[in-house]
Design a protein that fits this description.
This protein is mostly helical. The protein starts with a helix and ends with a helix.
């Protein structure tokens, strides 16, 4: 039968190994997420035009009047 000291040393070694592996895995995971985020942001910038290049759609005055009326009636009833 091994001594208590030897068992504690073995337990400490297993604990350090386990914590090291978890730390390594989480570090790799964070780096992977960062790389994917950078790649997707670059692809998104290349595929969508900026806001200044998109024409503003004309607003229908009847639609604006209908929405304004609905908001006014809602606020009056509350």
């Amino acid at each position: 039968m091994t001594s208590l000291t030897q068992q504690l040393v073995d337990a400490l070694g297993i604990m350090v190994l386990g914590m090291g592996l978890v730390f390594l895995f989480l570090g790799i995971l964070i780096l992977g997420v960062e790389l994917v985020a950078r790649c997707l942001s670059r692809a998104n910038e290349a595929s969508t035009p900026s806001m200044s290049e998109q024409p503003m759609p004309a607003l229908d005055s009847r639609l604006v009047a209908a929405i304004s009326s609905a908001v006014h009636q809602y606020r009056a009833s509350a």
